[in-house]
Amino acid sequence: MMHSKESLEAEAERLRGRPAAESAPPVLSEFTVDLSGAPARYAERLRSVLSAAVSLGAAADFEEEELPTEGVPDWFAAVCAPGGEGAPDFAGNGRGAYESRTGSRPWSLQDWLYRFDPDDDSRGWQWWDVTRAGPSRVHIWVDSWGESFFGCQELRWAAYTAGALCVEGPVVRRSGAWAEETPA
Q: Where is this region: Disordered (predicted)?
C-alpha cells in the first residue's frame, strides 16, 4: 500500500485535528493503549512525533543517506539515540516497555523516519485519530484499508515512547465505534 502525496497531506490534516465522522472509511483498526499519565498530554506527544514524520514523508528526498530531523521532538530524538540517553522518563520507560513487550530492539531515529517514505509499502497504516477510553487509557485509530494484519512496528515504537505502558491490537472495528468516542 503506497502512500501518495495527497494521502500524506490528508493524514497530516488528521494529525492536526479530529476528522469528520462522515469522512471515515467503513472500518478502522484500533489499538488499546494503557498510560501512566494524562490522555491529553499523551495524545499531544504522539501527534507531534507522527506529524513530523508524515510531513517529512511528503517533502523529503528519501534517496539521501540521512533524512533531515528538524521538526522531530527532542524527546523522541533522545529516546531513539543509542541507550536512550537524555530521554525524559515517560519516553525511557516506554522504550523499556517496547523492548520487553515486543521482544524487538529500539529504533534508531533514521530507521524510524525512513518508514515514512511514501514509496515504501512496509507501513501498512495511516493515522486516523486518538480517543479517550478511560482515565489512563486511549484508543489509537488508524486506517489499515480493512486489513487485520499489517506492518505497524513504527507506530508501536511511537506509541510506547510517547508514554505507553502497554499497546494491544490492532483490532478491526466499524468506524462508528471511533466516532462515538471522545477525543483525547
A: 1-30
Q: Tens of pLDDT along 65-110?
A: 899 999 999 999 999 999 999 999 999 999 999 999 999 999 999 9
Q: Where are the domains of the chain?
A: 5-183
- % pLDDT > 90, the chain: 90
Q: What is the mean pLDDT of residues 32-48?
A: 96
CA-CA distances (angstroms) from residue 11 to 53, 90, 126? 11, 26, 6
> pLDDT, tens digit, for every residue of 122-160?
999 999 999 999 999 999 999 999 999 999 999 999 999
Residue 154, number of CB atoms within 10 A of its CB = 20
Torsional sign, CA 156, 182, 22, 43: negative
DSSP string for the chain: ----HHHHHHHHHHHHSPPPGGGS-SEEEEEEEEESS-HHHHHHHHHHHHHHHHHHHHH--TTSSS---TTS-HHHHHHHSGGGTT--HHHHHHHHHHHHHH-PPPPPHHHHHHTT-TT-TT---EEEEEEEEETTEEEEEEE-TT-SS---HHHHHHHHHTTEEEEEEEEEEEHHHHHTSEE-
- Residue 92: which region, alpha, beta or left (left: phi > 0; alpha: psi -120 to 50)? alpha
Residue with cell 524487538: 104
